[in-house]
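Hi C.,

You asked whether I'd gotten around to modeling the 106-residue construct. I have! Everything is below, sequence then structure, no commentary in between.
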Amino acid sequence: MVFHVLNRGVGRMRLFLKDGDFEAFERIVEKTLEICPMRICAYCLMSNHWHLVLWPERHRDLGRFMQKLTITHVRNWQVAPIACLSGCRRHTRHRRPACLLRLTPP
């Protein structure tokens, strides 16, 4: 059986901000395939969501593949450096940086 799966950012938030983000996701898919084999019939990546058409060989393959893929993607996204309002790139998405705290009015 073939499945159409998708993942969308919360509130349609952008998942991919630059070309390198799309390429990083494709590398995550490749690494996931090494651990959890899956037949990928088609895929489409857009800035705020992605679609995959998957054809698992066994019953439990779909769940294993999707779990590994999405967890790896989220973890990589959370630790990617971001630029804050002050222009620094020292912190990551999962922490509220001190530089933002300094810029926030009382």
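If it helps when you're writing up: The chain is about 40% helix and 20% strand.

Thanks,
B.
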